[in-house]
Queue: 2 jobs
Job 1
Amino acid sequence: MSAGANDLFSLSRRTILVTGGTRGLGRAIALRFARAGATVIANYLRREKEAEQLRATAAEEGLALALCRADLTNERGMEQLDRALQEGGAPLAGLVHCAATGVHRPVEQLDWKHFDFTFHLNVGAFFKVVRLLLPRFSRGASVLAVSSWGALRALPSYTVVGASKGALEALARHLAVELAPRGIRVNIITAGAVRTEAWQAMPDGENRLAEAVRRTPAGRLVTAEEVAYGAQFLFSEAASGIIGQSLVIDGGTGIMI
Amino acid sequence: MCNQDDILVKVREVCKASFAVDPQKVNLETAARDIPGWDSVGQLSLGSELEEVFHISLEVDEMMALKNVRDVVRVIQTKLAAQT
């Protein structure tokens, strides 16, 4: 049944899991989806305070948003997530994988520990969560992997994170092909530089943000909310024909030489 | 609560929660290699538990730098002292 023009972008009656859903892009996507009518489960691991702030915002607005604290890099965390989803009951209409980490250093300052840690969360957790959710996905479900330009382009001190994002995108495209016959669409968002707290952990973060502004045709950074609008579109019926694609939301930075 | 002994008591419980180890076997000299599960990935579990129990925030770099219990206690002392 096709949606009318007014509800073509609605996410009502859908239950969606957002990993890394209490901070940065994940928070913006979780709120946008809930405001579009979805029931959102926002998974997180760290920074309880930000999680409680999100809970308070959702409560103020009367949004259907629940928190789940689970470490997606280990079995205990996956069991916690599984239990939380069981308690939710409803089939899942989708997953957004925003959870990400990484150490921003030049390669001579990186070791295997940094690589392993980064890949486990940024890529491995996506694989594990998709595997966990496969039996729970409803037909018509969507999966979205949140990536960055570092998957395709070289950025200073972004070696391991960028490599993990490249792997994430490749995994997403393969899943897109495998899951399309089940009616599950998998896509990618490539977000440009967005002012989130993640930049505080990067060496020279402020200068790099200023450089990102300089390189953006619009003369400003994209916002987390603008990225979230793109995510809503990819989850909506309006995007029903879009499978295995990367939607770039970067204010045009990527087209500049 | 910046006292080393008080912090160590809680760190032992964090190690129990993160790695299912006997807290009585955890002391300042205990290193990551002594605890099964305290690997690069276990570092995230440990760091997140420390944040929750001590109400502190750790950067990823700080988590990755924790090589033994003495490092853990030291970083917690520093964080708690900065809060006062």
Note: Chain B touches chain A through 16 residues (CB under 8 Å).
Job 2
Amino acid sequence: MTAEMLELTATQAAAAVRSGELDAGELFEVYRARAAEDSLNAFTWVADQVPASPKAAGTELGGVPVAVKDLFCTEGVPSQAGSRILEGYRPPYTATVVQKLADGGAPLLGKTNQDEFAMGSSNENSGFGPVLNPWDRTRVPGGSSGGSAAAVAAGMAPWAIGTDTGGSIRQPAALCGIVGMKPTYGACSRFGMIAFASSLDQAGPLARDVSDCALLLRHMVGHDRRDSTSLEFPEQIALPSAGDLKGIRLGVPEELVGAEGGVDPGVRKNFDETVALAERLGATVEPCRLPHAPHALSAYYLIAPAEASANLARFDGVRYGLRVDGSAGLGEMYSQTRSAGFGAEVKRRIMLGTYALSSGYYDAYYGTALKVRTKIADDFREAFSRFDFVVTPTSPWTAFELGAKLDDPLAMYLNDFCTVPMPLAGIPAISIPSGLSDGLPVGFQLAGPAFSENRLLEAAFALEQSIGFDGSPARRSGGEA
Amino acid sequence: MSVADYEPVIGLEIHVQLGTRTKMFCGCELSFGDEPNVHTCAVCLGLPGALPVTNARAVHYGIMIGLALGCDVAEHSQFHRKNYFYPDLSKGYQISQYDVPLCRGGRLGDVRIHRVHLEEDAAKLVHVGRSGRIHGSDRSVVDFNRGGTPLVEIVTEPDLHSASDAREWLGLLRTTLRALGVSDVDMSQGSLRCDANVSIRPRGSDVLGTKTELKNMNSFRFLHDGVLAEIQRQADLLDAGEQVVQETLHFDPVSGRLTPLRSKEEAHDYRYFPEPDLVPLVATPEMLEAARAALPELPAARAGRFERELGLSAERARELAFRAELADYYEAVLGSDGGAVDPVAVANWIPQLVERIGSETDPANSQVSPSSFASLVELVSARRISRDAGRQVLSTLVAEGGEPEAIVAREGLAAVSGEDSGLAEIVAGAIAAEPDAAEKVRGGNEKALGPLVGHVMRETKGRADGGEVRRLILSQLGL
Amino acid sequence: MLSREQVQHVARLARLELTEEELDRMASELSKVLDHIEKIRELDLDGVEPTSHVIEVVNVLRPDEPEPSLPLEVALASAPEPVAGGFGVPSPGAGADPS
Ligand SMILES: [Mg+2]
Ligand SMILES: [Zn+2]
């Protein structure tokens, strides 16, 4: 039974529970057991029992459990954002998105490992150790939502949620061979999400296929009075069914797929094949221009650290979390606590952001970045006047070796080259597995205008059907070491 | 030069706690001396993942204050983060306003308003000494009840030129805010807090001197004494050929001394940037109309009306209008008898009442009802009782209330005058009793009337009308 | 190129304590990243409005109605130094002025 259960997608499992063929408690226990044996270090906490009342049968999500990135606050459950400064912290409240999923019938399976405060593209910046890629345990799963991506790819979770600030859902999804989506900014409440960069952070689904992605997203979106920047989603998220791409106009931005992005040849080859497939499915494909996209990375690495430098100021050892406190004074308590609690990358970004905001440099750095952000949004608006979607490789590379880029921050930042422009413009984008390169998954990214999620899911579904990617190898290697 | 040869230049920075029910960005109720940390939540404790949502009434009050001070309300303003570390600041930044405040410009009395903006208050930090968990180290305790209370910060232009002007203007501001009903503006409770920027320059010069900032002058007297002391200190420095250094000073009301606050080793750099968790504020026509509709008549306007329509002197008009409770009582008195009583006479009697009930008491809470106050004033105006008798009646009213007519009858205070009052006989008696004085008066020495009048008054216990007594004396002396 | 002194100043602003060699590494790493970032300063951005929020929404306001606060024991549950119903901290130096 277990084996068949694992082969069911979340959508299929939910349907089976609703029709009574499958017992939600049993399903939960199967995944709970696999998560508990996690040998990828994908989980930082796993539920020790089936939740008291998995109101399964009545609900659309059918009691199919969800893995949740560590940075979502979950009442009474460790919520550490991958940081030692929050080790063991148990919040008194639950994030809106997690609550909506529970209400929709997806109980909490566990909390997943991540780069500390979502700052990273390899999950090696976690205060609780790196996550291994189920396709090759010597390689990274991507980040920052690496635990969620690895857990789904390895069949330790039916589906998961993460957050995307500069690519933190799409890039690990690509490197782990699953589907990941960053919704329109404001579509999902940020209340209860431990903030990295408030004007960019968005919660989103990581799933085995596009249909699971759509079903989970349906229960994540919606206005929340506790988040001033949250918006009512204009329509219900539909379950995709498109068989082709007839009439869909795809734009390929040379600035992102060309040499400048340093896109790996194998990845580029797979991208071109996927584009050709799209044409066979009826799409028209033309080059398009995003003149400022090459500068997105620079703008991103000023705006995100600047906001982070303020968002992380609350970790001061006064009200919760780590405190390092000799009998020294207040100033020492602050700096010793923060220096001991934050990892190297977090310190680096706090420094970068503090510098970018400091007097005398604001206009040159932060102020300039906000203007570049305007131009990037204009570029997309222009592109979407002629195209339905812009398509790129999700990541310039496939999963790289653990440690390969650790001592070169800039090289690590280049991971996000193709994924940072979208959050800067607040628009949605999805990454689907488009095949393998040297046995490692490659991701294909589609980005559309604000609130085009339904059309994106339809197009991604049509492509997915004809690509026929097989993720089962990762699930087989999955739990077992 | 003496201190008188310098012109002080003073600007005020006032923080007003708004009288909303809940905090600026969360639903916690405001605290009034409750146990520590019982009015906190994820938002005002700055817990990870919590987000602020702006209190609509705080914005409404902010706009009311802006309109009352004649400011331009920005149609598009923005919250910023002001970054600094301090234990009373839960997030490591204060949500405030920076380059686009809610209101700009304006004026109150003779002082121009620079800006009015919204922000959140800090928590309370209480020093508990060396009793902390860690032996031998000096500890403090943070109480977040106050953290996040809505504040309006009002910054004036440097238009004040003396300590007493500063005190008087702050009084006008407090009356105005109280009239608006947006705050209880109680300095002793910290709901009205004032910092002062002080510099001096040789009279006649128009270059500004180096200014110092005096923090938390938390009473009208401290503001006055602190500014006075700082003006003297700066004058002494300049006279000694020294420089005034730009610094923040703390005034110790006990010693009267000003001590510099040790500013932290690194210079302040607040790294303001737009608060990404909050969307811009747009003052819509509806919001402006609602604020305008909520404005009461303001003290300055009321004083003008008293002057124009009721004929009061400028200073008497302000004396009443700038203390709302006096002005309210005054208008109640005028209203109590269908407008028969003379407004100027009533206004002139109010200080007598204040003198008897004390300036801290609201006359509305005294024994003296507006209608009995009105009939008292009428009795005097109609000369049915003398001014002295009127004062006696007022004292009785203040002590035990009642009706003036009844008191006059009971205590026999009715004016002694007219044919059958026996006043003529008393005057004759006085002339007989004071022959020398009478002689002098006959000799044309008006001053000598004193003893004669005094005698009559003693006889009549002050109930006779001074004017009539003089008339009778002169006629009986054949003058 | 960021100087050690600049890095030291920024670290103080951010309340981070960096060891000598952390300072050096930070200086070179940040300089490298900034060299890359510098490029955007060559763009012609005259008259371009800055974008701090990507959504158009304005005036998101909350009615002035109380919501339940946390029980004291919950508020203090994670406090490193709970004392006298509050959050204990080392006292700021006498007269230290935050704002
Ligand atoms: Mg202020
Ligand atoms: Zn609160």
Note: The first strand of chain B starts at residue 6 and ends at 17.
